[in-house]
């Protein structure tokens, strides 16, 4: 007899199969890279478009006051490009967050209008699964904003200051010619007989009218000009000459071997109302801000001002990240056949954020709020707002709770509705008078009957055109007539039920 087959092989196969199942159970799910890349492409295209549009707007606004500097210093094309590149990072500090939020809103608005979001949800893709590419793009843009805020803006302010000094000194050097009176130094007029190859002067005449009624005349055999970029000053050094001071009837002559005449250069450095060449907190690096704050008394105003600038540069990129994430639920407010409100809402949120940020900064500098808490409070509040809005949209709920909407509508009906109707009536009357046309007659009963029926899907009620709840925010469905609304499972409200009953009685 042949020996019984041992059950070891099936057991091994079972163990192997179980091990494979266990391995497959612990296997990480592969991220949907195709979905992520598709969403990223949909967001980046409107981001770059918004960036170009906003950049052109900011460029034109910035260009008008910049032309005064260009014309005053006679700047060429190359220096103009350098000049604008120095103020470019400060513009991007506001352009990039706005373009990022607009790009997310526009991208998801298009996906919603084309029913692609609906198709993704039907395939089992939730909003949480669509969030990773938005987070990655928002983080990359926030990092870029932080780089501009921390590194490029202080460097640009310092470079702008140095460029202004170089251009002002260059204007003096070009204007200073042998055997010509030079008035490039304002109230100081310089005349030089000869200028050698080493820019040494021979036979110098200087007339100084600064704060005087009579000029202070200086005559020297030789001299030269020295520049101090840090102090924005030019020093005229004169050798072996005389100084003539004429005040009234007295005439004073002073002989000198070496005489220095210091001149503070004041080129037109105002762009709009902002002095971009002054060494303010905006031109300091992060380390310089901390050192400047440490030199002040603790909790003094200057101490808080330097630290507020330090935290401002860190908090603003975080705000850019929060606003970009908030653009996702705002972009989903669009729908086929419904007005897209994402862009207006995004603009309102952006303005409110910067108002809150500026207010908190002023209160922190004044000592009304603790410094760190005040500088980061807007980001905390808008982070909570973003989480709440995303949670409501993910659960297919409106942005604003219905209780809040009803409360606002009640306030509007009680205090503002009559005034707004009167203003609208006056405006329409004036418009008709300007156009020379008659006022539109009031709607008749037949025209009212031709209007669609509005229905509220949350309560299951429909309203007739003459009902007070006809235009309520929750009434998002419309039917051609009452029969169609009843066939869809809706019933009339109390007022409309009474109106239909009276209409039926009069018809009978």
Q: What can be said about the biggest beta sheet?
A: 6 strands, antiparallel
Secondary-structure class: alpha+beta
Shape by Cα distribution:
elongated
Intertermini distance: 102 Å
Q: Strands across the major sheet, in which order? A: 1-2-3-4-5-6
Q: How big a fraction of the residues is strand?
A: 15-25%
Give the fraction of residues assigned to helices.
55-70%
Strand tally, please?
A: 12
Number of domains: 4
What is the radius of gyration computed over CA atoms, rounded to a whole number of angstroms? 37 Å
Treating each run of at least 4 consecutive H or I residues as one helix, how many helices? 13
- Secondary-structure element series: HHHHHEEEEEEEEHHHHHHEEEHEH
| Mean pLDDT metric | 78
Transmembrane segments: 91-111, 131-153, 314-334, 340-357, 369-391
Region (Disordered): 1-25
Pfam family, one: LptF_LptG
Subcellular location: Cell membrane
């Amino acid at each position: 007899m042949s020996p019984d087959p041992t059950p070891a092989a099936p057991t091994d196969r079972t163990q192997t199969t179980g091990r494979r199942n266990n391995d497959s159970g612990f296997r990480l799910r592969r991220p949907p890279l195709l979905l992520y890349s598709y969403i990223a492409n949909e967001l980046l295209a409107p981001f770059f478009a918004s960036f170009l549009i906003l950049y052109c707007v900011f460029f034109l606004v910035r260009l008008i006051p910049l032309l005064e500097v260009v014309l005053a210093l006679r700047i060429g094309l190359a220096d103009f490009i350098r000049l604008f590149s120095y103020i470019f990072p400060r513009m991007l500090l506001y352009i990039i967050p706005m373009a990022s939020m607009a790009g997310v809103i526009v991208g998801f608005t298009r996906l919603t209008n084309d029913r692609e979001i609906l198709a993704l949800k039907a395939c089992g893709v939730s909003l949480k699964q669509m969030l990773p590419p938005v987070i990655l793009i928002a983080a990359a843009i926030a990092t870029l904003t932080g780089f501009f805020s921390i590194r490029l803006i202080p460097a640009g302010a310092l470079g702008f200051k140095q460029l202004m000094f170089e251009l002002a000194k260059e204007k003096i050097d070009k204007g200073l010619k042998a055997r010509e009176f030079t008035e490039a130094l304002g109230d100081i007029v310089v005349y030089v007989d000869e200028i050698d190859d080493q820019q040494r002067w021979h036979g110098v005449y200087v007339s100084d009218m600064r704060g005087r009624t009579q000029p202070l005349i200086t005559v020297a055999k030789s001299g030269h000009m020295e520049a101090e970029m840090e102090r924005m000053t030019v020093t005229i050094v004169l050798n072996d000459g005389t100084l003539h001071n004429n005040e009234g009837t007295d005439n004073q002559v002073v002989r000198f071997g070496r005489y220095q005449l210091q001149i503070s250069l004041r080129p037109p450095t105002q762009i709009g109302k902002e002095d971009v060449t002054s060494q303010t907190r905006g031109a300091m690096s992060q380390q310089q801000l901390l050192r400047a704050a440490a030199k002040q008394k603790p909790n003094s105003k200057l101490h808080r001002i330097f630290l507020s600038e330090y935290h401002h540069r860190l908090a603003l990129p975080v705000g850019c990240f929060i606003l970009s994430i908030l653009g996702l639920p705002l972009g989903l407010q669009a729908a086929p056949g419904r007005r897209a409100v994402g862009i207006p809402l995004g603009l309102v949120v952006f303005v409110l954020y910067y108002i809150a940020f500026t207010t908190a900064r002023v209160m922190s500098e004044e000592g009304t709020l603790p410094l760190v808490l005040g500088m980061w409070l807007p980001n905390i509040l808008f982070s909570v707002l973003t989480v709440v809005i995303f949670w409501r949209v993910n659960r297919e709920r409106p942005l604003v709770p219905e209780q809040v909407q009803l409360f606002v509508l009640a306030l509007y009906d009680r205090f503002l509705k009559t005034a707004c109707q009167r203003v609208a009536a006056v405006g329409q009357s004036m418009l008709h008078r300007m156009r020379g046309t008659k006022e539109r007659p009031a709607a008749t009963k037949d025209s009212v009957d031709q209007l669609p029926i509005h229905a509220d899907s949350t309560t299951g009620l429909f309203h007739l055109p003459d009902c007070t709840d006809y235009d309520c925010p929750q009434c998002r469905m419309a039917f051609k007539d009452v029969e169609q609304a009843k066939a869809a499972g809706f019933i009339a409200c109390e007022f409309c039920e009474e109106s239909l009953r009276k209409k039926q009685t009069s018809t009978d």
